[in-house]
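User: My notes are a mess, but here's the protein and acetyl coenzyme *A's SMILES. Can you give me a structure?
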Amino acid sequence: MPLPDPRNKYKPCRGVKLENRQWPNNTITKAPRWLSTDLRDGNQSLPDPMNTDEKKAYFHKLVDIGYKEIEVAFPSASQIDFDFTRYAVENAPADVAIQCLTPCREELIRRTVDSLKGAKRAIVHLYLATSPLFRDVVFNMDEEACMQLAVRSTKLVRELTKDNKDAKDTYWQFEFSPETFSDTPIEFALKICEAVKKVWEPSTENPIIFNLPATVEMGTPNIYADQIEWFLKNVTEREKICLSLHTHNDRGCGVAATELGLLAGADRVEGCLFGNGERTGNVDLVTLGLNLYTQGIDPGVDFSDMDSLVDLTEKYNKIPVHPRAPYGGSLVVCAFSGSHQDAIKKGFARRSAGIERDGGNGNNLHWQIPYLPLDPSDIGRTYEAVIRVNSQSGKGGAAWIILRHLELDLPRGLQVAFSKIVQTEAEFKGRELKSEELIALFEKHYFLGEDSKHAYDLEDYNVTADGKATRLFKGTMTVGGKTVELQGTGNGPISSFLNAAETQFNYPMEVQSYKEHSLGKGSKVKAVCYLEIASKKNGKDIIEWGVGIHEDVSQASMRAAVSVLNRLASDD
Ligand SMILES: CC(=O)SCCNC(=O)CCNC(=O)[C@H](O)C(C)(C)COP(=O)(O)OP(=O)(O)OC[C@H]1O[C@@H](n2cnc3c(N)ncnc32)[C@H](O)[C@@H]1OP(=O)(O)O
Ligand SMILES: CC(C)C(=O)C(=O)O
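Assistant: No problem, the inputs look usable. Here's the predicted complex:
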């Protein structure tokens, strides 16, 4: 039973008092510094943490796609984490900083710094929970004791790193996280950071990283943004600070909180690919990066081979990426429903025309396709994957697949006719129809396949002028294996054939529309004809479509007419 009054159990998150807040008026105009914590915060939350080989593969992929700051481990926790840090130190490119997390405990700090020895660039990340709940429940420490511990620990890190003459070859950076910042009285968060800064003595060139984590997401994202703006307004020596965000997703707003935090002035973001991490996860770096990209901002990380990132995380985290995960999910660049497919198909047609006019590849043409905020090809997905067909689909979806695979640009009426066939098949099978199945259905239905089963075949014919405006068709057909001679007249080859067929086989046939286009290019070019015929079947007026393909355009149209005849003779 839900509680009749949850107020007695849960209290709302209180924001900070922020005068003249600025962040709602800001826009994000450049990518922040990114830190991937997949190998630390992500890894520590896995039921089966990665082994060393898995961490290595993951690390190299993070480097390959462009992350320059990577938190690789909690080296004081285990020999595996220590050894992996050594591997990362020895194998990181010169421009990649290796970050490690340590609590405020002397032996653990020493071990952490040991693991980073010899690194070209290293970030020692010290954390200490600062919220009243944690100080009280976890540490039994008052604010003063908490501050003294942070100060003592920072002094030790300083002594072991930037003040250590034996460690001068490393470019040391220092990060301090008042853990559970999101639930810490803001004045105390500022006070402890100021005390830590005073000890570390950062410079403008090498700023201290203050990472202000929403360790647990406590309130709406605007509250987090207010906290960040308040902190930045009140902290001293802003120019010597890199303000870092580290959000979790307990309320499902990690991305929003991070984006609002950036609007509030933050410089750096920590997160994991596809939002792996404690509980509901860290903020998703893929979403954040591609959110920037789709605003025309280079994220500085390469997401163009999305499937390889999905494979990586699924293999090593052993957690599937949700099919609806932003950008990376297998279903997010797919449209099943008819009106979406129709709009997307029209959008692509408009874009192709624009590209042709522009004479380029479309990279300088603004992306404007209904329902698709991102060009699937920018993340390595194919257009073919965009439109998928099931019983919810309309004419546009199947027509798109036929266009992409067979290059047949079906007239609207034929799209409608074929979509009914598709609908029946999808309902019958009770599932999505794959592209190959749709193509087979189309070829079978309009008798285009080499081995299609059909009643009528045109063996031979000729059309001659019979008087001024009249054409005479004479030909031989096989009907169910038997040879039949037929002849008819009309004002052109098709009408004279239809007249012959009507006389011979008793199908009234009147042309409603005719369309042709070329297929392929160069010496392999063919003609495609689409013929719409009004006829009668079992006493009822009906419309049938025929499709014919041939190197010769008049043969193609004749084939289209035979295709109609076969449709009239078929049972379906
Ligand atoms: C929000 C975050 O993600 S923080 C990072 C969390 N990551 C991890 O904890 C992964 C690695 N951790 C570990 O392997 C272990 O917890 C270790 C090695 C750090 C410590 O192990 P143990 O000494 O056995 O302690 P244990 O894990 O049982 O409890 C944590 C202890 O650290 C203390 N602690 C927690 N955070 C901090 C901190 N930032 N600084 C100093 N001490 C801390 C706790 O109060 C507790 O102390 P207690 O034993 O005196 O009560
Ligand atoms: C150590 C800190 C930054 C952390 O992981 C968190 O608060 O979630």
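The domain at 30-317 is CATH 3.20.20.70 (TIM Barrel).
User: Great, I'll file this with my notes.
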